[in-house]
């Protein structure tokens, strides 16, 4: 009943609005587009977020909410460039070990308190506090803030952390090693401020909508777990005047096909496109179906550890398998969402580095297939001695499709018998982490927009190097790159070694494939990390 | 009867304890832990997290602490995945939702099913009978998980009559599709059981006697045939009741209702031990309770049984 | 969810009342069953489906795992059911022949139903007989164990078993068997309790027949009626349960598939112009379930002399 009455009311209001255009919400200050009266942005999320506590949150869905609720020292713009947030700017010493941020004087918490340097000190100490045991404490370690690692290990009090409030407007950070990109790391939620008084008053319940106090453009007003969360305009936000979207609603919809149905029914402004449906949707809704590159790769990794399968120790076998994968079919027919084919480990979308074109990339698929047959024959495999192995992936419709397609390509072209193993996520992680596999799916999204976030994965000490590939040259190149001013040549060399040794089979690089309502303005398609802020969006009148 | 009920409930305590112990061990045996993630946590960070949740303790100690907190504080522990919430919170939020649409589905399935079944039996071998039987069989044979997407497609996209999901405090437009999706297959079973039971009763000697005495048909059906007819239905309804309250994972997934079904399956997949255990205990307790209620209801329907 | 219907317990009790007599009763039951038209029609239909799974592959142009690369690029157009392309039922989302996949899936689902029910039957019957016959404290312990297992939600048991042991045909049967033998054990135990004090058992015991022999030779044959009726009702329940497992993504591994898995896939894409991906597997699924219902009903009527 309530629903009907509400919608009837809404219609009434809408007609009234139509009758008197004077009341319209106006136009966008820079683009001049007419703005819709209802500035509500509704989008679909796959899963319930893990937390909205900036120091605790660990999933992408949660980070999106936290980026709206809280604001760090710096923000990213639509292109992914660094722009001022709570800080108006920063200075650094010559060897980049001391950073000093100046905070703006009009930044406020949603309860009216000013945002001061001490709020950052408190938050960062929280992040490394063994008692809070944040799963993102590792992020604090890689920021190189002085004593972070020691505090996490419990060997120093949290007050030893290398961050200090010189006064309410000045924050000084001391690093244990030079880090040229420290400022970009402050756009991450772990380094957002936290409201001490609220956390001390409410304990673990402080993130409940009735208790939470935040300093971003929005405040959390409603949270129904596994159903929806709502954030609304924070009138105390320093840039509230320039914020256009009034209300942001995240709806949890587990099934992507149902989400698409509901998008079509007009219940959502944004949803993901299921694998394979993009071409049809693009044809039927050219304005709404969008695809843009993302900073993620997708690959299969060989188990090259000592107890790995003997057949993969032969580089010719690895190369043959990599060659015979027809990436064009995978990106055009299986995924069909505008994903780029991958012949390098690092996605081309990465900033300041152009992955080199490998020999494989320049060949036609027919040439690759011929070469693959040749290599496999040289390695001693043929019709009477077929290559056999098993490949594992975790349960998901699109992983399954890719694995099936790959195994069929190998079977039809090379006579290779690949047995498919589909595993539930946690089992998959455990199996892969214990090198209990032969060939396994892998994927990585960049932590920051720099090639090393990918290339580090194939170094010997990397925790994510589940294939246990080890190359002394890559290790030394990547160590050099950490302090080098010009890294491009080093990375090019690393990619060349990867292409030569083929420890992994790059398949494709991710794309963001969305249905985005055409009345949503300014979606940051050029931000390859997809760090979006609702305050930068707007809804255009239709 | 009261004494019997109390005895039954007391006898359930060791059962529940063993249930908790069994689940506790089973869950921990499953590969991967709550903090196994795509990005392996550095050992020190992992150690801090495990210390915080007591996972570094020996198993017996963890089990003891767990029981202690339940018995003395009624605290089922924090969720390992949803770090802002604890298990009490999650159950308090999700259970009323599952209970609401589950109970409504139960009512819908029972009332429609029994009506169809009785109508079919009374009008045996007429078109009403055939219609009811085909409807019942079709409802039962369709896998219930395809109802979700079909309903949303029809009522939300094509007709635009109902919202495609959400709960909204249980407002009725949000309830209709979950209730239809969940109740359909039970409705089919209940209709079939009721029909065959009623047919059997109507052919029994005492009904024939009643007819011979000239008692009006309406009165025969309502006063004499109804109770024995419902006997097998009641025994079927017991497990169904527990199931509709708990097994609603596909409703939660398709309609974003936020009930416990999805939270439960999700907790098993993400190894959120405490949530999984908490909900298992809730379900185990419910099973025990519903079994008792079924037995009591049975006594009411069948005067031969006395407790 | 399954294996828990008390209705069958009722029926079983009724059956047992008079199922103890001897051979002629089985003959009677057979006659009653064959004269049940609905059941016989369903047996014929089910027979056709089984025949189809056996003979169907000989007519297939494509096998169940080979991808038709041309159809893959245009599933909505080239992948539609057609005789010329050899895809009689169309192709799935990856361009694999749905005809061959449906045959393979039907086989899987039938096997899951039969073997799952058989496992429940064997384990449950043995457990029930032992508990019921030995009685006393052992009976109490064994039944308490069953009660505990019954209180664990079957969803949890299935998920954990499949997660721990990985996906395979065997594991699927074990998982389904593991949650469905419990009710069987309870029914059989109840029956055994009433049987073991009957005169003919007393007589056997007096004649010095061993305990084990009594269980196998004298009690077991007298339980068969109940067991068969219950097992026939378990088969569709197993198939339904398997489809639920597939829905959760925990079913058997590619390239093998089951009707539940195909339906789950087809249901996902039904709005995208490839409705055949849902309809063909759904048709076989629904047909199997319905025929199993009628066959179960027929068996019950045949073995339940009350209806005469």
UniProtKB/TrEMBL annotation, chain A:
InterPro entries: Peptide/Ni-bd, SBP_5, SBP_5_CS, SBP_5_dom. Residues 1-24 form the signal peptide. Residues 82-465 form the Solute-binding protein family domain. Its main location: periplasm. GO terms for molecular function: peptide transmembrane transporter activity. Belongs to the bacterial solute-binding protein 5 family. Pfam families: SBP_bac_5 (PF00496). This is Periplasmic murein peptide-binding protein. SUPFAM superfamilies: Periplasmic binding protein-like II. One of its GO terms (cellular component) is outer membrane-bounded periplasmic space.
UniProtKB/TrEMBL annotation, chain B:
The keyword Calcium does not apply. It is a multi-pass membrane protein. The chain crosses the membrane at residues 101-122, 134-159, 171-191, 233-255, 275-301. PANTHER family: INNER MEMBRANE ABC TRANSPORTER, OLIGOPEPTIDE TRANSPORT SYSTEM PERMEASE PROTEIN OPPB. One of its GO terms (cellular component) is plasma membrane. The keyword Lyase does not apply. Keywords: Cell membrane, Membrane, Transmembrane, Transmembrane helix, Transport. One of its GO terms (biological process) is transmembrane transport. Belongs to the binding-protein-dependent transport system permease family. This is Oligopeptide transport system permease protein OppB. The gene is oppB.
TrEMBL record, chain C:
The keyword Oxidoreductase does not apply. InterPro entries: BP-dependent_transpt_permease (IPR050366), MetI-like (IPR000515), MetI-like_sf (IPR035906), OppC_N (IPR025966). Keywords: Cell inner membrane, Cell membrane, Membrane, Peptide transport, Protein transport, Transmembrane, Transmembrane helix, Transport. The chain crosses the membrane at residues 38-62, 110-133, 145-163, 169-188, 223-252, 278-299. It is found in: Cell inner membrane; Cell membrane. Residues 106-296 form the ABC transmembrane type-1 domain. GO terms for cellular component: plasma membrane. The keyword Nuclease does not apply. One of its GO terms (biological process) is peptide transport. It is a multi-pass membrane protein. Belongs to the binding-protein-dependent transport system permease family. OppBC subfamily. This is Oligopeptide transport system permease protein OppC. It comes from Boseongicola aestuarii. The gene is oppC_2.
